[in-house]
Amino acid sequence: MTTPSDRAGYPVPEIYSALRTRPFEDILSLQVPGSKSITNRALLLATLAEGVSTLRGVLFSDDSRHFLKCIQELGFETKVDEAARQIAVKGSGGRIPLGEASLYVGSAGTAARFLTAYLGVSRGVYHMDASPQMRRRPMAPLLNSLGELGCEVVYEEEGRQGFFPFTLRGNGFKSADITVDIAHSSQFLSALLIASCLSAEDFKVKVRGAHGMAYIDMTCRMMEQFGVKTLRETLADGSAHTAFCTPAGQRFQARDYYVEPDASAACYFYACAPLLHIPVRVSQVHFDSLQGDAAFIRILEQMGCTAADTAEGIVLNPPGEPSYRGVQVDMSACSDQAITLAAIAPFADSPTVIRGIGHIRFQECDRLHAMAAELGKMGIRCEETADSLTVYPGLPRPALVQTYEDHRMAMGFALTGLRAPGIVISDPGCCRKTFENYFETLEDMISRLSTKVQ
Predict the structure, then answer these.
(1) Rounded CA gap, 81 and 446, in Å?
(2) Which of 63, 336, 406, 427 is catalytic?
(3) Pick from 243, 258, 273: which residue ends a domain?
(4) C-alpha distances in angstroms, 170 versus 105, 111, 443?
(5) Is the pLDDT of residue 240 over 70?
């Protein structure tokens, strides 16, 4: 059977007009898969631990499968049960079973950055390659830091230093005090922090840049859950904003570990609360989540929604009136949801200004420009700066939305089509990167809403 994600283009069914005729008064309850960010961090932490860790509720998607295949090709023993959403990993206390391997990370940024750091401070020779998309994404800040630590990096394409493909010749830690620039990705810092437990000395990394700290907080909290504590300090010397120190002598411990539902995935459905004027609950998503994207629900509250964190998950109720407010927000802490906000912003009653998102130009695509371009196709007025996007209210006209091989462009702009007829999403299959049945889940939601309003 053909699924929505198999189609070359997915025409989004407009449901809003039916809901205006006969309102949906129940709570729309949904489930989403496990967190990609937590799944891939847990996989790496499990390899660094001594003994068998069992990871439950894991996400199976293109990104996590690439990460899983890489650790298997490094010689780590795993037992995988996709039906139960469970993976057991036999860690070896920081030792990599194979001293040489060739790895392909696909388009998975976490695999690309986390594994590169781990292998770069280990002893061995590792050949690294990636998809054409990941080959375009920056790696230089991390590779430069690894060079400071004693790793030899050999680039395999002339004139493309700082990008895949390359070979790492690791020699362990030759330094214990470095600086990393995270202007383009906080994953560079997360990668170094996770690998820092392998240093024989107290390891200190100074940080230039401040975006994405919610993901750094997640990394530090997960490291502590697996037994390694990292200390954070504010610097006054002007060379960097923050430093992190991992005291020597700590080791990760094997765990029976539960992976939270993906807050990023949940946000697409929470955005339906103001968009479609319906109450929404996503199972087991809570405000105390490890994931920074839960903060997006607070932005939806600024638009007029009200939230209640219940035992079953956060319930988000729509505004008292069918309209909702535009907002002015800094989304540096939850920038993956900038597209989600931009997709629903045309229906707000005032302009929406999204700031602090210059770094998303260096993700799967130039997301900031892509948002402006696709909204422009719909006839929506936008103003793009180096670090922000302003979206003005308007009725989107029919358009084919290009996704730029970017899962978040596909998932986010599908929301626009729920309220404006004629929106078609090109290449819906790109969602397999993190949420392979997103469009099936969306269609199930539409079917349930349609049944209630008939």
Answers:
(1) 30
(2) 336
(3) 258
(4) 18, 17, 48
(5) no
pLDDT of residue 211: 80
CATH of the domain at 387: 3.65.10.10
CA-to-CA distance for 324 and 277, rounded, in angstroms? 9
pLDDT band, residue 5 (cuts 50/70/90): confident
Question: How many CB atoms lie under 10 A from the CB of residue 368?
Answer: 26
The SS3 of residue 386 is coil
Question: Which CA distances in Å does 144 have to 117, 149, 181, 197, 217?
Answer: 11, 9, 10, 19, 23
Among all chains, which residue has been given the structure tokens 């388009």? 107
Q: Which stretch of DSSP H or E encloses residue 280? A: strand 280-282
Long-range CB pairs of 382-387, under 8 A, 24+ apart, other chains included: 386/358, 387/355, 387/356, 387/357, 387/358
Residue 4, pLDDT score: 80
Within this chain, do residues 394 and 346 fall inside the same structural domain, yes or no? yes
Phi, psi of 128 (to 5 degrees): -120, 130
Count Cβ atoms within 10 A of the Cβ of residue 43 and give its class: 0-12 exposed, 13-18 middle, 19 or more buried. Answer: buried
Task: Please state the rounded mean pLDDT for residues 12-39.
Answer: 92
Beta-ladder partners of 310: 313
| Last residue of one domain, picked from the residues 232, 258, 284 | 258
- Catalytic-residue membership of 349: no
